[in-house]
Amino acid sequence: MGNKTSQDSDVSFIQALAELLRANDLTELQVKRDYAENDSLNVRVSRHVQMAPQPQQAMVAGAPAPMTSAPMAAPAASMPADPASHPGAVTSPMVGTVYMAAEPGAAAFVATGTQVKEGDTLLIIEAMKTMNHIPAPRAGTVKRILVEDGGPVEFGAPLMIIE
């Protein structure tokens, strides 16, 4: 029984590390926790620097050049270039699996055009068998949903855009 409690505290500990990573704009954090002689937790939390994906997309996707030049022409067209840099982006606080509804077959928490209040559940991210409700960081309207139900998500990846 003590193992379940330590697993729950490990999940909380890892989430706290992920928050530290984001709050201090770090790219990697590694911690080892020793509980007993043969019982320890070794955690490495890392994220991609958001500046790196943008140039790579531009180099790899050489054909859609209008996309890379459009953001300079009109600020409204900057959404396709890098959703993570959009001021209304809601990013993932963890690595896990995205669920758009409380259970299979249920209505999705939000859809494009949904009005949300700060704290409303946008979606669920399952991490280590724990269902984490992701709240709206601010009130607004869901403009774009950038993840798929049942799909994987990385730490810091944009989930949706709320304006």
TrEMBL record:
Keywords: Biotin, Fatty acid biosynthesis, Fatty acid metabolism, Lipid biosynthesis, Lipid metabolism. Pathway: Lipid metabolism; fatty acid biosynthesis. GO terms for molecular function: acetyl-CoA carboxylase activity. Residues 87-163 form the Lipoyl-binding domain. Pfam families: Biotin_lipoyl (PF00364). It comes from the Bacteria. GO terms for biological process: fatty acid biosynthetic process. GO terms for cellular component: acetyl-CoA carboxylase complex. This protein is a component of the acetyl coenzyme A carboxylase complex; first, biotin carboxylase catalyzes the carboxylation of the carrier protein and then the transcarboxylase transfers the carboxyl group to form malonyl-CoA. This is Biotin carboxyl carrier protein of acetyl-CoA carboxylase.
